[in-house]
Amino acid sequence: MAPGRSRNRIALALALALAACRHVFVAPSSPRWRHVAARGATARQNWMEMLEEAVGTPTPETPDTAIPSSVPALDPELMTEELRAFVLEEKGLAMSGEDFEVKTPEGQLVLKINGGNRVPIPGVVWDKLSLVTAGGQEIATLDRQAFAMTASYDLKRADGQKFGRISKAMFAFTSTFELYQEDDPEGGPLLKAEGSFSDKNYVMKSRSGRVVATVTRLKGFTGGNVDNYQVIVAKDVDASLILAMAVVIDEIHDEENPDAENGGEALPDMLEDAKGLPMPRAPAAMIPSDRPPLDAELIHATTTAYELEEKGLSMTGEDFEIKNPLGQVLLRISGGNRLPIGGMPVWDKLTITTASGGVVASLDREMIAMTPTYDVIRPDGSKFGRISKAMLGFTETFEFFLEGDNGGPILKAEGSFSERNFEFKSRDGATVATVGRGYYQTDAENRVLECESSCRLLGEGLELNINSQQLRPG
Predict the structure, then answer these.
(1) Which of 87, 17, 42 is nearest to 304 (CA)?
(2) Residue 396 shares a structural domain with residue 304
(3) How far apart (Å, rounded) are the C-alpha atoms in residues 14 and 362?
(4) C-alpha 310 chain-centroid distance
(5) 208 and 306 share a domain?
(6) Domain range for residue 207?
(7) 411-416 and 397-402 strand pairing
(8) β-bridge partners, 227
(9) In terms of CB atoms within 10 Å, which end of the chain has fewer, N or C?
(10) What does pTM read for this prediction?
(11) Is residue 40 one of the residues assigned to a domain?
(12) Secretion signal: which residues (predicted)?
């Protein structure tokens, strides 16, 4: 990849980081974030933000056939018609120690899962859990098998009919959990859970290997062997099956690893698990604090993810799209070298536009400069700042300077730029954004990326995880 194109990627990342790191104000009466309403319904944006926080997990995809397809769903109301998010909360003060609540991201109760060990004797586990709707209707039970080669739960409908069983696989190279449907004509597991169960970050796959759900421990987890999860479920999947499986996995894993919570990380970081990068945190002062942002629609109250995709077949070789993890285009960047002559200096100009075509800013390469530098220009032609490669750093560093600000760089990018694995720091040294290659790639695509030195890829993705200032009532 040409050095000029690599620098463009850094400049774009810096520009996007600055555009999105901005203090937000909400009225104290609002139960949700009002600032996201400009790009869709509040409820949808809330769970989109929840999905964006699940860095390191792929976006679930619609299965080839509905799950289940040969029998009715446990709860028709939970047969998803679109990608949906749920919060699975373990109740730390439950009398049985086995109580969960399933809610929407807005806090609306969907299911209650409660029960406990029927033989409360140390070393003996024989529990039974009930799945009950918010209206009090039982839809299923999870009944632990007293005698089994591996930990297993029978999943039964409310009328006592056996739907299937959830069990830990016996002969897998890594820990795997499987859900089998009773009398399934196709045979084999209907769902399979794989991933890091100790870090509470895993996926559920269909028979064809497609990821149809993801489960990650929520950032607000505080310890005490009590876990809260965010569960993302694809279209055409009975979410009650996914949620039941997640509860079983939680129970079996905690049972087999009673000391894991005391000796492990207090708050597993999904970003660190995926790429070894720190989770961004809020800076001491707003970025920027003395002027409007480049794009007010990109301000956020919580840690938010973006995907920066280079379009491999673009005519200029400089076209990018910025998406959320659901694949919705938020920004487009296009342009190229104004002097595409071999041996001539690179003098390119890139334009950042919204999905609807509105211009946000332009990145204009300075023709004559001591070090590669791009001016960041607002649509009205006023200079917002500049992005340049530092001249005197011991290691390669890129900096963002605001026009008229004499306090030094407002953002500094450090890390491995050749590996596309770096972070942005504020003036106070806080990591406020991180960039890593391919967070939302599929497993197959990630394996291809590992062969990049011997394979010429048409395009590559960068994932940004950006933390804004905390909310303040206004």
Answers:
(1) 17
(2) yes
(3) 13
(4) 20
(5) no
(6) 56-267
(7) antiparallel
(8) none
(9) C
(10) 0.48
(11) no
(12) 1-26
